[in-house]
Amino acid sequence: GDDDPPPTTTHEVMPTVGVGNPTCVTLGFDSSELKLDNDGGTGVQPLTNGVKPLGGDLSITISGLTDSFFDFDSAGVDVLAVIVKGGSTSSDDPGNENAYLLYDYGDGVSSDKDLHALSKGASEYFEISHISFCYDESTPDPEPANLTLVKTVSGGEATQADFTPWVGESEEAW
Question: What's the half-sphere exposure (Cβ side, CA atoms, 13 Å) at 138?
Answer without folding.
Answer: 19
